[in-house]
Structures are given as structure tokens and as C-alpha cells.
Amino acid sequence: MKSGIRWLLRITVLLIALAAGGTFIPRPLIAPVKASSAATHRILLLSGPIHTDIAIPLDEETRAAFSFLDDPGFSLDHPNAEWLVVGWGGRAFYLETPTWAELKPLPVLRALTIDRSVLHVDLAGHITEPQPAVTAFDISDEQLARLRGFISDSFVRNNGEIAPIPDAGYGEIDRFFEAKGYFNALFGCNTWTAAALRSAGLRTGLWNPLPQSLRLSSGVYN
């Protein structure tokens, strides 16, 4: 019994040390060279209790880059849409848990082991700043183009066509799509978000499995 408790304590201490190191060791270790062009675009890191999304401005370039998403039920030209909001996550948990009240054991088990991944795409109107759940970054044309490219490349494509998941969504204008990669608890939605931010030339922690870690490290190093 005592031996089991000691091992549990050791694992707990190890996880705490890894989380701390993942937060306070920057990635990349050396700050990238600052963009030569002006930071004229604003992107947002949207944080929840266990999940993060990225919001990019729905300007003409974004509409063109993501024209493959446009359809009558998901119009990128919606008059009230100001942001394209994208998140990556585990298929079972993402699709079957729109609210905490609908939490089920099997999606949790899949999230703690390994699962196929999906992308969730939504349109948002005005997002109020400042607020605790929103972290803003100002980036250049080139940085935003790289971020768009990273997100676009995360979609699974079959013969050049994206793979929407039929009848999946939380509301009337959001969509789910098959995504590249596999989800697990150690390298999940927040590590994908961190990688997306790094694609735009921003710095994150070395390993950010939780929103709190990602928000803290990205705020410290940018």
C-alpha cells in the first residue's frame, strides 16, 4: 500500500515538473527574428477550462484562403461574421460532448487514450476585449498567411476535397471536418493550438497540454 502511494506521488511530482517545464521553457528556445512588415492583423487565442481555439480575422484574404469551406449553410460572407474560429480535438469527445451536462464515459476514455481527430470551424461576430478567456496577438501579413496555411493543411483531403462530418455541429453555422493526426491527453487540442501559434512566428511553452499553460507561456514570451 505504501509503495503504491509512493509511486503515485512520484508520478504526480513528475507530471507537475513536466507541466512547469513545458510552460516556462520557451519554444522555440531562441526568439525568432521579428517580421520585417508591420503587425497589422489581430488574432485571438480563445481559452476554455480544457480547450483552446484560434480566431483569425475574416477579411478578404481569409475568405479566399478558406473558400473551400463556403456553402449556403456556412457562408463566409455572413454580414455579422468577423472571425473564423478553428479548434482541433479528439473525435469522440468533441462530437459527443457539446456541453458538460452531456459528458459520457466512453468519449472521456477515448480522450485519455488515443482517438482520431477532427477540426471544429465556427463563425463569430464581435468578440469583446479584454477578457480573461481572450488573449490577443498582433501579427504581420506574412505571419497571418503562415497561420492560414497551417490551419488549412490540418484538414484531411480526399482527392483534393475536404471531408465534412455529416450532421455534426453544435449550432446552425458551425461545422466539423476530418483532421490530420491523432488525439491523446498529452498531445491534444492545446498542443495543436500552440503549434498553430508557432507557425505564425509566436512563441509558446515547450509543452502546453492545458489552456492555462498555453495562455501563460504565450503571454510571457510574446
Structure description:
- There is one protein chain.
- With 222 residues, the chain is of the alpha+beta class.
- Helices cover 35% and strands 24% of the residues.
- It has seven helices and ten strands.
- It has a six-stranded antiparallel sheet with strand order 6-2-3-4-5-9. A two-stranded antiparallel sheet has the order 1-10.
- Strand 2 (41-47) and strand 3 form a beta hairpin.
- Helix 1 packs parallel to helix 7 and helix 5 (141-153) packs antiparallel against helix 6.
- The longest helix is centred in the N-terminal third of the chain and has 23 residues, at 2-24.
- The radius of gyration is 18 Å and the shape is globular.
- The protein starts with a helix and ends with a helix.
- The relative contact order is 0.21.
Radius of gyration: 18 Å
Number of strands: 10
Strand order of the main beta sheet, please? 6-2-3-4-5-9
Counting helices, strands and paired strands, the structural category is alpha+beta
Biggest beta-sheet profile: 6 strands, antiparallel
- On the 0 to 100 scale, the average pLDDT is 88
Reading the helices and strands in chain order gives HEEEHEHHEEHEEEHEH
Share of helical residues: 25-40%
Shape descriptor: globular
Strand content: 15-25%
Note poorly predicted spans. none
Distance between the termini: 46 Å
Query: How large is the count of helical segments?
Result: 7
